[in-house]
Amino acid sequence: MMHHFPTRQALLVATVEYAYNKLRDYRVHQLNTFKPGLARYRALIDLAWETAQTPEGMAVNEVRSGSRSDPEIAMAVTSIMTQVADDYARMVGRHVREAGLTPSVEIQGLTATTAMSVRSLAINCFTYPRSSIVNSVLATLKEARENIIARQLGESARLKPARPEAKRAPSRPARKT
Question: Which terminal CB of the chain, N or C, has fewer other CB atoms within 10 Å?
Fold first, then answer.
């Protein structure tokens, strides 16, 4: 492989470019299976989780992680990682507007939190594979999304949970000693 790339850094940049192009194309294809508007916007969280677990998503994540301890790699990949993040944000922004929502700091925060959360979850699942944690994190992100939708479009636009939340056990009175 080094025959085709002059440096290790060039190989890593090309890896990120290749992987991200595959991820972008996959996202476009998957999102086109949803009705335009809120349905596509709502699909973004699950799609982010799905793509974070793919070989391409993990490759980009590995390059990102590796760059933290290698200044040469960090310098080489910062530009492509910035392009990837900006392209993803523009794509989300298009779906936000298509859904009738107004881009806001809150939506930007949810988008960034989702991206960082699914990357961390994908790494975490290698050593601590707990679907309950994944489900809890994704449910929290989706609840935040629905709160934003309800604030911007009205409570009637909120997606009702598919399953009722588990009922909390009644609290027990403190024992007297």
Answer: C
Distance in angstroms (rounded) separating the CA atoms of residues 79 and 14: 12
- The Cα–Cα gap between 84 and 90 comes to 10
Q: What percent of the chain has pLDDT over 90?
A: 79
Give residues with Cβ within 8 angstroms of 5, minimum separation 6.
Answer: 11, 14
Phi/psi of residue 11, nearest 5 degrees = -60, -45
- The residues near 99 (Cβ < 8 Å, ≥ 6 apart) are 37, 38, 40, 41, 149
Q: Is residue 168 part of a domain?
A: no
Cβ–Cβ under 8 Å, residues 54 and 23:
yes
- Judge whether 166 lies within some domain: no
- What φ, ψ does residue 7 adopt, rounded to 5°? -140, 165
* Contact by Cβ (8 Å): 96, 107: yes
- Which CATH number belongs to the domain containing residue 114 in this structure? 1.10.357
pTM of this prediction?
0.85
Angle at 114 between CA 66 and CA 110, to 5 degrees: 130
Q: Name residue, tokens 């909390």.
A: 168
Q: Per the domain annotation, does 56 fall within a domain?
A: yes
Phi, psi of 158 (to 5 degrees): -65, 135
Domain total for the chain? 1
Q: Is residue 53 part of a domain?
A: yes
